[in-house]
Design goal:
The structure holds 2 protein chains of 2 kinds. Chain A is elongated and about 65 Å long. In chain A, helix 1 packs antiparallel against helix 2 and helix 1 runs antiparallel to helix 3. Helices cover about 55% and strands about 5% of the residues of chain A. Chain A is mainly α. Chain B has a two-stranded antiparallel sheet. In chain B, strands 3-4 form a two-stranded antiparallel sheet. In chain B, helix 1 runs antiparallel to helix 2. The chains are: A mainly alpha, B alpha+beta. At the A-B interface, helix 1 and helix 3 of A face helix 1, strand 1 and helix 2 of B.
Chain lengths: ~140, ~140
């Protein structure tokens, strides 16, 4: 039963934790906008989401509860593994070797924040509809 | 790596940028200082930024690794009446370049603003996350 609930919410949960992680990577790019020789990083969101879903479907993720009986719950923790961080290709290289394009980073940052909130809204309405379905009336 | 490390990352940038701003302020304030504790004219200082990494991850913010003295030649000014003038009447003036310092200051304040924006956006995200499942 709990397992079923978990499956209902897993997709949005994965998407949200990936969004949160991408937010950090973008924040790091903005923080290092003036660091010489810093190279802006990012990851391919859809590819990472696909692989994270794949992982949670097949083998469970990173750490799981030890089970000694079939009737134990199979609870997995979403381990934040190291992402496949890529380097951004600069369209205007600068003299100090820094490849952070502030406009692009800020646009991506805002975009990512809005998408995070969208996931949050979806998750919240999913919870709401599950709650409604459980109520006896 | 928790969600809260965004605050560490943006916070490290805020303190690095404000240190850069302090150095700029010091340079501008001392643009005409011909004598210091060592009886030498003031030398312009510049900060050196370095990205830092948290253990086990490839991101982690920025810090000021060192403050270096500007090695460019000192300005010589002809002021025969000055007590610090040498025998040919020249006074050694600081090598502060006001135009460069102004540019530095504007750049630092823009970066600072961008990081404040990052912080407030993340704060909003987190506060919304806390209300998940309510209502």
């Amino acid at each position: 039963m709990i397992d079923k609930l978990d499956n209902e919410l897993r997709f949005q949960q994965d998407a949200m934790s990936l969004r949160a992680e991408r937010q950090q990577v973008l924040a790091n790019n903005i923080a290092n906008a003036d660091t010489p020789n810093f190279r802006a990083r990012d990851f391919d969101f859809s590819a990472e989401l696909a692989s994270s879903l794949q992982k949670s479907h097949t083998q469970g993720r990173g750490m799981a509860l030890a089970t000694t009986s079939d009737r134990h719950l199979h609870a997995d923790s979403s381990s934040v593994s190291s992402r496949d961080l890529l380097y951004r290709v600069p369209d205007q290289p600068s003299l100090d070797g820094n490849t952070v394009d502030m406009d692009r980073e800020r646009a991506q940052f805002t975009d990512n924040a809005v998408r995070y909130q969208a996931s949050l809204t979806f998750l919240s309405s999913r919870l709401q509809s599950l709650k409604t379905a459980m109520q006896s009336e | 790596m928790s969600m809260f490390s965004i605050f560490d990352i943006a916070g490290s940038a805020l303190s690095a940028q404000s240190q850069r701003m302090n150095v700029t302020a010091s340079n501008l304030a001392n643009a005409d200082t011909t004598s210091g504790p060592d009886n030498q004219a003031y030398r312009a200082r510049q900060v050196v930024f370095e990205s830092q990494y948290q253990a086990g991850s490839s991101i982690g913010g920025v810090r000021v690794s060192q403050v270096v003295e500007d090695g460019s030649p000192m300005r010589q000014e002809y002021r025969p009446g000055d007590p610090l003038a040498d025998e040919s009447g020249y006074v050694t003036m600081p090598n502060v370049e006001p135009v460069g310092e102004m540019v530095n200051m504007i750049s630092a304040s823009r970066s600072y603003q961008a990081n404040v924006e990052v912080m407030s956006t993340s704060k909003e995200m987190m506060l919304k996350t806390l209300t998940l499942g309510e209502a």
